[in-house]
Write a structure and sequence with these properties.
By secondary structure, the protein is an alpha+beta fold. The protein has 4 domains: 1-46; 51-62 and 288-367, conserved putative lor/sdh protein from methanococcus maripaludis s2 fold (Beta Barrel), CATH 2.40.420.20; 67-75 and 204-283, Elongation Factor Tu (Ef-tu), domain 3 (Beta Barrel), CATH 2.40.30; 82-194, Helix Hairpins. It is built from 3 helices and 21 strands. The strands form 5 sheets. It has a 6-stranded antiparallel beta barrel. It has a 4-stranded antiparallel β-sheet with strand order 2-15-19-18, with no helix packed on it. The longest helix is centred in the first third of the chain and has 42 residues, at 3-44. It is elongated. It starts with a helix and ends in a 17-residue tail after the last strand.
């Protein structure tokens, strides 16, 4: 066998192997190409499932413009009853938290020394009265001089003034309620020595009651004595307190450019207490018609706020479906869960009220309004 024939026989298995590999590769390539074609066909026919949202049809509603502020409750009359003169507490005639009338005795201090001095002064006054009557009779009969009568008169006046002084000291050691109201927690005990000015018990008049709040100076034109005010207090669910403005401060704060306003509220149950902070709304005299939507409908963004309007759309194949169109809007004032739309929407538009974070232009939607987001102008969340 020649060398060339031997070489051809040794190359034959290699050629066959290469040919087999190429055939297998071609077969696998064909299978993959077929699978790719099938995937492309499936992708061309694939449609994203519709996004589940809730919706509402917007309409113009009556809107009562208001001015909102945080206020503080203050008693019309509120003091800490204190001792006028020093002394030892001998009697306490009240219980913490009870209602008292004006002039009702709260605490008595030891007045034994003043009472003894008063008896002495009363006896001296009685003697001076007799001396004055005797001097008057003698003067009438011209037995004594006018100087004797004047001396007797002066002695009587001195004795009477001394008696009144001791009586006043006794009265000042009887601590009374200066006005009708609700007492706080007592701060004294029987046998305790009080200095002049030591606190005895807080006393507050709760009905009516004041609310003080501040508003910017640009709202001065909207304020007037008698304007209606509503107050809502945290922790008092479903409780609304109504009143009216009774005073507007005569100066504007130079640091904040705010003006202080005071309103008087009815508080028959005493739920409002001095020192509480409350939300205050001042009703303006005119009403407006505006489009109101829940705040959950709005997509907030630096480049502009928008909502998604739901309407019938047509896809590339001419098939109709319910889709979402992004609509930029201009927002107005908000109240509770509601926000005013100044422009961008009109009555009759259907907007998505929840699920807007997952929407995009032309996205298909499925509306399910079984559970709607809150749309309350005065919400009372449980976690506040």
């Amino acid at each position: 066998m020649t060398d060339s024939a031997y070489s051809r026989r040794s190359l034959l298995p290699i050629i066959l192997t290469i040919a087999g590999c190429l055939a297998v590769a071609g077969l696998l390539g064909g299978i993959k190409f077929y699978q790719y074609q099938q995937g492309m066909a499936m992708f061309a026919n694939f449609a994203m499932p519709p996004e589940a949202v809730t919706s509402m049809v917007v309409a113009e509603e009556e809107w009562q413009p208001t001015l909102s502020a945080i206020g503080s409750i203050q008693a019309v009359n509120g003091v800490t009853v204190s001792a006028d003169l020093p002394g030892i507490v001998t009697e306490i005639r009240f219980e913490s938290g009870e209602n008292v009338k004006a002039g009702e005795v709260l605490v008595k201090l030891d007045t034994r020394q003043e009472e003894a001095q008063l008896k002495s002064a009363l006896a001296r006054r009685q003697l001076s009265i007799l001396s004055l009557q005797r001097a008057k009779g003698l003067l009438t009969k011209q037995v004594s001089s006018q100087a004797d009568f004047d001396a007797a008169t002066a002695e009587y006046q001195q004795a009477d003034a001394l008696a009144q002084q001791y009586q006043a000291e006794i009265d000042r050691k009887t601590i009374r309620a200066p006005f009708a109201g609700v007492l706080g927690i007592r701060e004294v005990n029987v046998g305790q020595y009080l200095q002049s000015g030591d606190p005895v018990v807080p006393l507050q008049s709760l009905d009516p009651i004041y609310v003080n709040f501040s508003l910017p100076q640009q709202n001065l034109g909207d304020l007037a004595v008698g304007r209606k005010v509503k107050v809502f207090a945290e922790g008092l669910k479903d409780a609304t307190f109504e009143g009216e403005i009774n005073a507007i401060n005569s100066v504007v704060d130079e640091a904040t450019r705010n003006v202080r306003v005071q309103a008087t509220l009815k508080n028959p149950t005493g739920q409002l207490r001095p020192g509480m902070y409350v939300k205050t709304l001042v009703d303006l005299p005119t009403t407006e018609k505006n489009i109101l939507i829940p705040a959950s409908s709005i997509s907030y963004a630096p480049y502009g706020d928008s909502v998604f309007v739901l309407e019938e759309m047509t896809d590339d194949k001419g098939k109709t479906y319910k889709g979402a169109r992004q609509q930029f809007v201009k927002l107005g004032a908000g109240r509770g869960d509601q926000v005013i739309i100044l422009s961008g929407l009109k009555s009759g538009d259907e907007v998505a009220t929840s699920g807007v974070f997952k929407l995009r232009n032309a996205a298909s939607v499925s509306v399910d309004n079984q559970t709607q987001p809150s749309n309350n102008p005065q919400p009372t969340p449980e976690d506040t």
